[in-house]
Design a protein that fits this description.
Layout: H1 3-9, H2 18-32, H3 39-46, H4 50-62, E1 66-68, E2 74-76, H5 78-101, H6 106-116, H7 122-136, H8 140-154, H9 163-167, H10 170-173
Antiparallel strand pairs: 1-2
Helix pairs in contact: 2-4, 2-5, 3-4, 5-6, 5-7
Length: 190
């Protein structure tokens, strides 16, 4: 079995599910304004049923990420608060990278950052922070890199295939497909 196969098969073994991350972030958003939420508050914020909230809170409680007091108020445990901070931090880093470096629109960057916030490794996130810090610096190489990148992509229609795709398919360059293979259906010219 290749490393790639081990990674995608271990997807469910991530520290927390996408749904679980959103429940923790919802609890944290209430706590941030000084209000410990109840299940009904989380239900309204996430637009899910109270039964769904109860199941997820039970799961988060079993993983020692939340506690529920006698008044049915939900609190983050220290482990839960640490996890929320890491998830929110990763979301922020990915969003900044997508917006500032790649030029992705804010709404798209927010959605995409949400999709990967609990999946991206600490190592990769730290590398993105270093890259963003460098690109934000006044170092001449950083300035030149960003200027060159923006100049090249300014004339690139993101919905069309460029010379890179036409003459040398990016997927084959990356070793994803063999050069003689046809690009996947979604990448073929119309």
């Amino acid at each position: 079995m290749t490393d790639y196969e081990r990674v995608w098969r271990a997807f469910e073994a991530n520290e927390i599910s996408h749904s679980g991350a959103h429940y923790l972030l919802a609890v944290a958003s209430f706590l941030k304004v000084g209000q410990a939420p109840r299940a009904v508050d989380i239900s309204r914020q996430l637009n899910v049923s109270r039964a769904a909230v109860s199941l997820q809170i039970r799961n988060l409680k079993a993983h020692n990420l939340v506690e529920v007091d006698a008044g049915h108020r939900i609190q983050l445990t220290r482990e839960g608060a640490d996890l929320v901070a890491r998830i929110a931090g990763k979301r922020g880093v990915v969003k900044v990278f997508l917006q500032e470096v790649l030029g992705v629109e804010e709404r798209t960057a927010e959605r995409d950052a949400c999709k990967v916030e609990h999946l991206i490794s600490e190592e990769t996130c730290a590398a993105l922070v270093r890259l963003i810090s460098f690109l934000r610096s006044s170092h001449p190489a950083a300035t030149a890199c960003l200027e060159s990148f923006r100049e090249i992509v300014a004339s690139c229609d993101p919905l069309s295939r460029c010379d890179l795709c036409t003459e040398d398919c990016l997927l084959s360059t990356l070793g994803v497909i063999e050069p003689q293979d046809e690009p996947p259906a979604g990448l073929q010219e119309n």
